[in-house]
Amino acid sequence: MARIKLEGLKKTYAGGVQAVKGIDLEVADGEFVVLVGPSGCGKSTLLRMVAGLETISEGRLEIGDSVVNDLEPAQRDIAMVFQNYALYPHMTVFDNLAYGLKNRGFKRSEIERRVQEAARMLEIEDFLPRKPRQLSGGQRQRVAMGRALVREPAAFLFDEPLSNLDAKLRVQMRVEIKQLQRRLKTTSLYVTHDQLEAMTLGDRLVVLNGGRIEQVGTPMEIYARPASIFVATFIGSPAMNLIPLDYLRERGNGLLGDLPKSTDIVGIRPDDLHMQAPSGPHLVVDSTLELFEAAGAESHLYVRLAGSDQPSVIRTAGQPPVAEGETLRFYVRREALHPFNRKSGKRTV
Amino acid sequence: MQTKRMTFPGRWLPYALLAPQVIVTLVFFIWPASQALYQSLLREDAFGLSSSFVGLANFSRLFDDAYYLNSLSVTAVFAIGTTLLSMSAALLLAATVNRLLRSRDAYTTLLVWPYAIAPAIAGVLWWFIFNPSIGIVPYVLDMLGYRWNHRTSGTDAMLLVIIAAAWKQIAYNFLFFLAGLQSIPQSLIEAAAIDGAGPVKRFWTIVFPLLTPTTFFLLVVNVVYAMFDTFGVIHATTQGGPAQATNILVYKVYADGFVGMNIGSSAAQSVILMAIVIALTVIQFRFIERRVNY
Ligand SMILES: Nc1ncnc2c1ncn2[C@@H]1O[C@H](COP(=O)(O)OP(=O)(O)O)[C@@H](O)[C@H]1O
Ligand SMILES: [Mg+2]
């Protein structure tokens, strides 16, 4: 059990690529923090610096109460789950789990006890005598988890551990990881590019972009109040619609007068465009339906706003009786607007 | 498995395309091999004027011959020594180079050089370096209190030929080991590092076991090399001496056949060599290729 504290962490690779450009973050003891961002934004680099697999170019890293900048990975009391699982192919599942304990000089009986316990927790007891190549992707994933938790480390580090699984298994493992972390209460730092995974797993999210933090907060805080256009469009699916303020202002209603002067673009989530007029102050937008996408419990309506070529997407529950080419009217509650400044990319209020 | 199927127009084209390979095999392998088999059953008279069929007498005489038995054990020492030295040196180099991730290309090209040098030249080179009167190694050893002389000491001579023969094979082994090391995912090493294994432990518990297919392949290749492809090295350095100390089987075939003119015995020796090669090849394909998969 330990907190992790990052202070001004920077990484410049030998070739001069600056992958991480100054990260300040504190992960509380027992917290599950997810680093999320598009591919290439420096998530893995940051995680690997915490693990000790990459040197820290600048800044301070604390795990527990000590600075660990110069400690070897083994001395940092962390365990990592790799994207490709990194199981030792020539060892049985049992030996894969036991390897880290053997290296640390645990007694045979203790190794046996811990491996059995982890295997039971992850339901991989039957696979203990097998080699990794005799396991399915999901089973390998469990073994990789088991190898991390037998050591009972101060922190778990995950680098996109679910991205090699098929969609169904990914959801299942996501739930299991969450439950496991709840039960063990081990501080966890989890990297993913999948915003849904991030939203569902994290106690807090850290949205990264180009080696910097865009926003830190609980999933709902970030969803409800994205701090920048980047976060607004990255978190949530389908992505938030961005509509020029001038366009909305032309539609009148005098509702937008109180927005800060710097606002020039407004974000509206696909869920916030309703087909029935809500109570309270709201805007009215007309549009033409270009494409209707039924996705079972919900539908996506791809529209073009009237008098502009602005494409937008609306998400509604069920399947409304609409036809492509039809003109549709949508209502947006005043509170559902996310005002941004295009130039700075920041939220204005 | 999908296999590619070619169809040729006409009947003769496929045969014509195969012909060069078949002819080369016939002329340079099948024919000499059958000649050796045939000759091994004959004995020539002292003047080489006539020969008579003697059955397996050439073989039974060989196994009563103290020189031949000596040659067998000399060959064993030589083959094991050469294989161990060339493989461990190559593995050490490959592991080092593998760590220097960058500028890898320049390194590998440099290290192929010794392999490109013909074995005879390598032999002469070593003969020169170890020359008791003018070589640098004896000079240095002398200062350290060791009188090196491979012309009189069988041990020195054996060391010399082992070093010379191993040297030539290092670059070849190096390339295979490096390729093997490169194919081990970096994340495995990283996982082991997090699991508390230091560099040496990582090497012996993760890297080396994962290299076994490469190691076994090279083991056979190197033994075959040491036993059959080192004629040039011996010829250029010790010529089998002193006192038969480095007279390995291939060299003895030559010495008995072309110098001693005992064609029957020489042929019998080459038949035995041939049997050993075949046995090693069978081991390679039947046993190792299947067993060494993890
Ligand atoms: N070993 C390396 N050497 C040089 N540049 C690297 C190295 N590893 C990653 N990078 C670069 O650093 C940036 C961040 O990479 P990474 O942390 O892997 O991103 P992510 O995990 O978010 O996809 C990328 O631009 C990548 O090309
Ligand atoms: Mg990554």
Automatic annotation (TrEMBL), chain A:
Listed name of the protein: Sn-glycerol-3-phosphate import ATP-binding protein UgpC
Classification via Pfam families: ABC_tran, TOBE_2
PANTHER family recorded: MALTODEXTRIN IMPORT ATP-BINDING PROTEIN MSMX, SN-GLYCEROL-3-PHOSPHATE IMPORT ATP-BINDING PROTEIN UGPC
Recorded GO MF terms: ATP binding
Organism: Billgrantia desiderata
Keywords for the protein's UniProt record, in alphabetical order: ATP-binding, Cell inner membrane, Cell membrane, Membrane, Nucleotide-binding, Sugar transport, Translocase, Transport
Domain ABC transporter residue range list: 4-235
Taxonomic superkingdom: Bacteria
Signal peptide range: none
UniProtKB/TrEMBL annotation, chain B:
Residues covered by the ABC transmembrane type-1 domain: 68-284
Membrane topology classification: Multi-pass membrane protein
InterPro entries: MetI-like, MetI-like_sf, UgpAE/MalFG_permease
Keywords: Cell inner membrane, Cell membrane, Membrane, Transmembrane, Transmembrane helix, Transport
Gene3D superfamilies: MetI-like
Compartment list: Cell inner membrane; Cell membrane
CDD domains recorded: TM_PBP2
Transmembrane region(s): 12-31, 67-94, 106-129, 157-181, 202-228, 267-288
Family indicated by similarity: Belongs to the binding-protein-dependent transport system permease family. UgpAE subfamily.
Assembly notes: The complex is composed of two ATP-binding proteins (UgpC), two transmembrane proteins (UgpA and UgpE) and a solute-binding protein (UgpB).
UniProt protein name: sn-glycerol-3-phosphate transport system permease protein UgpA
